[in-house]
Amino acid sequence: MFFKYFAYWPWFVASVLVCIISAFIYLRYQAPVYNVDAAVLIKEGDKKGGSSNNPMGALQDLGMFSMTNNFDNEVEILKSRTLIKKVVNHLNLYISVAEERMFGYNTPLYKSTPVKVYMTPEEADNLEEGAKLHLKYTMNGKLDVKVEYMFDEEKQETEVSFDSIPAVFPTPVGVFSFTKNDSVPPLEEDMNLVAYVNSPTDVTESYVENLSVEPTSKTTTIAAISLQNTVKQRGIDFINCLVDFYNLDANDEKNEVAQKSAEFIDERIGIINRELGTAETELADFKQRSGLTDLTSDARLALEESSKYEQQLTENATQLRLVESLRNYVNNPKNANEVIPANVGLQDQNLGSIINQYNTMLIERKRLLRTSSENNPAVININTGIESMRHNVQTTVNSVLRGLQIAQSNLERQARKFEGRISSAPQQEKNFLLSPASRKSRRPFTLCCFRSVRKTQ
Questions:
Q1: Which residues of 110-120 are buried (b: 16+ CB within 10 A; e: fewer)?
Q2: Is 265 a domain residue?
Q3: What are 352-398's pLDDT values in tens digits?
Q4: Quick one: 255 and 190 in the same domain?
């Protein structure tokens, strides 16, 4: 058998040589691809607690979201085009620079390029088919540029030379800028570079295809992130920036509630300050007209005995004003899709819990809309839950308000029992003592607002 095929040995040798040469050419011209991995812990709070302690429990109690579904939503957000495009624009990944080689693939330089090329993301997104730049950077700092791009569906070429950089090059499709990379040592010989400026939208699609975000197991909330890229450091920078932007967006959503609360409190403080200013002015005028400096009459002693009811009355009045302002905010159609101010000093824990649940659902809806449309079943479900929860908030606010109004009437009735005890006091003393009572009803609210501002900051 061996001697039968021995006569064809030249063909066997030629086949082996062809395979070796083909493999060499492939490795010479094919850029290596690196796989960059990372693990991210997605915090979801205490999923085991009831809905009264955990706002996310409201979603689970309504049957619309489970722990797994919420984790899947966070994974989809990490892979969303909106988030990835932010990273692409921030790191200028739509612009790549490589060293031109006569044989083999061009060597990507990334951060080691001696010349940085830049075009704004908005201009780059308007490029028809991207732009290609041939650069020759000399040891003495001179830069020769040849730009190839499409304009009005025709290929255009433009050349320009700069004696030094930084420099800018305006073209019909946008402005290219060139700066020196100070982190790279001076050139020892002239260098030929090639730069590609692509549409950030197209580059985003490429990263979406090469990015994988999967849970490490069914029992954890750790997401394994994997990216394939021809430059290892670029892949590392992309994943780090992706996680940073993800955390930043999450913090922005949490701060939205605090911002709304601070705006709500600032508005109320402004109203109360105006009222206090008027009261202080009227009180000063009254004392000046009456010539009063100090009061030690029985009327003061009588009012000191009623201080307990006055304190309860002013605290209840403070809560009453807060809930009335909150009701006006909730019933305002302009705030239909806005979070409801929290941490504004409400003493009713049930109302505060319901508001937190409503805000959590609203924030979850906004996050879902980043990666899906209004017609998505998950969005439709949460819209139904938000509508139901908003009605629940309105009902609870009205119920709390009625309770405070009843309590206010009872306290006022009790306070009036002590007013007879000062009926025999001189009219000036009685009027003077009643004026601070109305002033005190406003002070606790102002102090409550300032305490709430500290909590939201």
A1: beebbbbbbbe
A2: yes
A3: 888 888 888 888 888 777 766 777 777 788 888 888 888 888 898 89
A4: no
